[in-house]
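Lecture notes, unit on protein representations.

Consider one protein chain, 381 amino acids long.
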Amino acid sequence: MANSKSDTEFLYHLRGIGILAVFLVHAIGVACGRDELPWGAWFREFSVSKSFLLLLPFSFGWASVPIFFVVSGFCIHLSFKRTPDWPAFFVRRFFRIYPPYVLAVLLFALVVPWTRIDFSFSGAVQFLSHLALIHNLDNRTFYGLSPAFWSIAVEVQLYLLYPILVALVSRFGWNRSLTYIAALEITLRGICSVILITTGTVPLSLGGVPFMYWFSWSVGAAVADAYVSGRSLPFANQSLLIWGGIALASTFVKPLDSFSFMFFALLTVTAVAKLLRRKRATVSFSPFFSKYIKTIGVWSYSIYLLHQPFLSVASRLPGRFHVHPYPLLVFLICLCLWFPITAFSGLWFRIFELPSIALGKRLTRMNSDRAPKAPEASPGS
């Protein structure tokens, strides 16, 4: 299969849709004080405010995190297959992710008043665990500074697992490797399901273990491997309707809820495979909206880093004007905040993210130039 950058252009649109959906679910959390329906004995209950029921469709924005994980697995493996160099891989990943992230941590830990940490032992733990990207492994730090940061830590830990995935595939092939990894993720999610049923709450630190997401991330890599190698795309013949129905239904059933992330990942990878199978796959929007969604897709990492702490401003604004903070009013304020937050994120992307990416590329090129070159074969050899 011949492939080019135009074939994967739709991934920017997926990221754009994903970051908008994440923004909306976090806006619901600010407006309503919750972002999901409560549990009954076995099923979700609808005994919530009318405001939340009105906004309920937006509460599924959390399912964009599986989109980001699948797209990440796809892009990471696609890049590595084209340039199979481990030192270069980790240098590029470091400068792609870490410098903009550290600057965001410094912003929220030391500058922004309502997220600023105090100079205490617990504050130091918050700060250092976030710098080390291990805050997802402790209940006390999981949602510290910015709740959205947990998934960045998981993603980086999945990068560290990536060489193991490559080694497994080299030895066992993709089918067996995915089977082993799926068994691990299913087992962990099964444990979470038992805990949820018996105690009503799954510890955040267990839900943040990277092995819980390894299969959901690796399926994107599997599609990338087939795509770049010109093989038949796995998951391309799966049904979007069936996976969508299973994923949606699982969020309402207590024993299945722990598996919903994996089901949404399978829905996503099926959509990606189907779009790749089309020549020059695109997502159909009007030209203006398509360009806008692609732009916020390009900025999606910066938006993800910055948006959630600033959204909390929406719940404070009505009180400043002696207005009752009605949920729908706060949600409307959140929607208005989308524009300054994305504008700030666009600046962040240009000032910090792009130069960091360029520096990573420059360092890998310098290292490649310094590496000894193999002697060219002489004519006739």
